[in-house]
Design brief:
This protein is α/β, with parallel strands linked by helices and 461 residues long. 45% of the residues lie in helices and 13% in strands.
Length: 461
């Protein structure tokens, strides 16, 4: 439970804080600045509500002492109307905002919730940085299609324009969105994700824009929306194509004017938010069927980036596997260090409809099921990786004892021949399935001595 320290010399105000906030937060009360400082030494505090005009140590002196001590607790000033000038000075001393007495209970609750939500987001941001999960270093691979996506993301992080990331489920759209935010100018401010398909349609608006108490039956309290939490930072709207049409109009207003109204509210709220959107399917059909606004699509499709499916960058699979072994091996107490070429070949030939996410889950399962092994052999994958009719596991020779370069060439030859056979030797299709270009594929075929059977037939005739 988050904690609030409320400092006010009027007992009626202190009791009001206890009644208003006590059900949701742990509230400590102090009647003077000195008592507030003492409580700060004894208790963990997430937010301070501070009166300015108090006998003994007043609010300004309290703020100065906080500054000397290096305390970083956010402070909200609650003051009488005749001290507004002093309140402004207090904000220059580090206070975040001020509320005029007598205050509106709903407005105070909204402000407190928004401030504490921002604090939670910043703490999560710090955790992400410590864990190293926010940068481009977590996007593994160097296939041409992936390099193109990363280049677009690096360009996007230098500006505040809206980004639309498209790609199949599991391709890493959320990872790319985080990399754009944490590599840009807003990296010190919140990154707020919202999955539009994970929330019931009738709750999307209140989750996104906030809720005013009494807006509808069951709305027993006001709530800050993700839009306000993301103020100054980035809002990641995952699967935006699933957003209800009613909410799309309000989102369009924010994109155009930077303002919105909470559900049931009559106060215009202004925000500064950078939008990163993602979808796993094209908008054409949704727009045609009236399920997605065409004007909203134009607004979000400013900087389009496509994350390629794993089947179009198969050459990255060994690197991804090595990454997931290092990531999950210690956690599941696995001794696995490597995969033999035949096992890699089998994994590289799979279609991976769930893309990188499916591959990661599969590698983790392989590690758990073979914890005592150090090298994963092809037969260890039986029962874990489905047999693909286009994959002849036994057709690949044993590479043990071969020099690395020769083994690599033979593995490449095997995979290219498989792709060509699957695509009936249509080179453009085979190149796409391998995540490369037709020109590079033709170069590899010549280098490795792979010929099209149709060419042999025409020579013989």
């Amino acid at each position: 439970m988050q904690t609030i320290l409320a400092i006010d010399d009027e007992i009626s105000i202190r009791e009001s804080y206890r009644i208003i906030l006590g059900d949701t937060y742990r509230v400590y009360l102090a009647e003077s600045g000195e008592e507030g400082l003492k409580l700060l030494q004894e208790k963990h505090v997430d937010l301070i509500l501070l009166d300015l005009s108090m006998p003994k140590m007043g609010g300004m002196a309290f703020l100065e002492e906080l500054e000397k001590r290096g305390e970083l607790v956010p402070v909200l000033i609650v003051t009488g109307s005749n001290t507004v000038d002093i309140a402004v000075k207090a904000m220059k001393k580090g206070a975040r905002e001020f509320v005029i007495k007598p205050f509106d209970v709903d407005d105070l609750l909204l402000l407190v919730e928004r401030t504490l939500e921002e604090l939670r987001e910043k703490r999560e941001l710090s955790t992400l940085r410590e864990q190293g999960v926010a940068g481009f270093e977590n996007i593994i691979g160097d296939a041409p299609a992936l390099r193109e996506a990363i280049a677009g993301a690096r360009q996007a992080m230098e500006v505040d324009s809206t980004v639309l990331v498209t790609g199949e489920t599991g391709t890493g759209k959320d990872v790319l969105a985080r990399a754009i935010h944490f590599g840009g100018t807003r990296k010190s401010n919140p990154f707020v994700p919202l999955s539009c398909c994970a929330i019931p349609a009738n709750l999307v608006e209140s989750e996104l824009f906030g809720l005013t108490k009494g807006a509808f039956t069951g709305a027993t309290e006001s709530r800050v929306g993700k839009m306000q939490v993301a103020d100054g930072g980035s809002l990641f709207l995952d699967e935006i194509g699933e957003m209800p049409i009613e909410a799309q109009g309000k989102l369009l207003r924010v994109l155009q004017e930077g303002t919105f109204y909470a559900v049931g509210g009559n106060r215009e709220i202004e925000v500064d938010v950078r939008f990163i959107c993602a979808t796993n399917r094209p908008f054409d059909k949704a727009i045609e069927e009236g399920l997605f606004r065409q004007d909203l699509f134009y607004r979000i499709n400013v900087l389009p980036i496509t994350m390629p499916p794993l089947r179009k960058r198969r050459e990255d699979i060994p690197k991804l596997i090595a990454h997931f072994v290092a990531k999950h091996g210690p956690r599941v107490n696995s001794r696995v260090k490597d995969f033999e070429p035949r096992a890699l070949s089998r994994l590289m030939s799979c279609q991976w409809p769930g893309n990188v996410r499916e591959l990661e889950n599969t590698v983790e399962r392989i590690l758990v099921c073979n914890r005592s092994e150090t090298v994963i052999k092809a037969e260890f994958l039986n029962g874990i990786v489905a047999s693909d009719g286009s994959t002849d596991v036994n057709a690949l020779e044993d590479f043990s004892g071969l020099p690395l370069q020769e083994a690599t060439q033979r593995l490449e030859r095997h995979l290219i021949k498989q792709a060509l056979e699957r695509c009936e030797y249509v080179q453009s299709q085979a190149a796409e399935s391998l995540g490369t270009t037709r020109r590079i594929l033709k170069y590899k075929m010549d280098q490795l001595g792979i010929t099209d059977p149709a060419d042999k037939q025409s020579i013989a005739s």
